[in-house]
Design a protein that fits this description.
The protein is of the alpha/beta class. 33% of the residues lie in helices and 11% in strands.
Length: 208
């Protein structure tokens, strides 16, 4: 997934999930609807199955509060959005998620279709971080996503960073934009603290 190396190297100094008070653990199973996923049903159902399995494994951990979020960049951002539509996490972070609307241009190896029509199923807040110089999604496509979520009354906040394009979080790429990345990480941690009801927690994006 896009920028996965950057996220894999990120060291989080404390666990996001903390032991919950009695009775606060919650799990709200959702039924996946692969018949609506179109020509990429098999691959998207596979992604959702992996995410659902990870969610179950995390919620089985004694240290988990049961409040979970999804996060991803590029195709991972798209999958984070898809998980919000289908699996009902407590929050979702979408970093320049590609092809939530629109189709890949001819010649691109990524064989997916738009998933914006699935957004009626969203029941969690969404944070979207985008670059003004991005093409997938373009600022116009971000506006289209925003308009659809507004139309449906879905809780979300979108931020677009000037002079930043695709992969601005990726520290190992020429596309890296330190200022946009630092501000983006601040937005992410603030959003997760609010959405997952974290107290006394802190996260780090220090890489090693």
């Amino acid at each position: 997934m896009g920028d996965s190396s950057s996220f894999r190297r990120a060291r989080i100094r404390r666990h996001l999930a903390t032991s919950p008070p009695p009775g606060t653990r919650r799990a709200r199973p959702r039924t996946m609807r692969p018949r609506q996923l179109g020509p990429t049903a098999a691959s998207q159902t596979g992604v959702l199955s992996v995410i659902a399995k990870g969610r179950c494994d995390l919620r089985a951990m004694p240290s988990c509060s049961g409040l979970l979020a999804t996060i991803g960049c590029c195709s991972g951002g798209r999958q984070s959005f898809l998980a919000a539509c289908e699996l009902d996490p407590e929050a979702a972070v979408v970093c320049y998620g590609a092809f939530i609307v629109g189709n890949p241009p001819p010649g691109m190896s990524m064989k997916v279709g738009p998933i914006i029509d699935r957004s009626e199923g969203i029941r969690c807040p969404i944070l979207g971080l985008f670059g003004a110089e991005e093409s997938h999604p373009s600022p116009e496509q971000v506006g289209e996503i925003d308009a659809q979520l507004n139309r449906l009354g879905k809780q979300h906040e979108f931020h677009t960073y000037e002079e930043a394009g695709h992969g601005f979080f990726a520290t190992d790429r020429p596309s890296y934009r330190p200022q946009a990345a630092a501000e983006g990480w601040r937005k992410i941690w603030e959003f997760l603290e609010r959405s997952l009801q974290l107290t006394g927690q802190s996260g780090s994006t220090e890489v090693g």
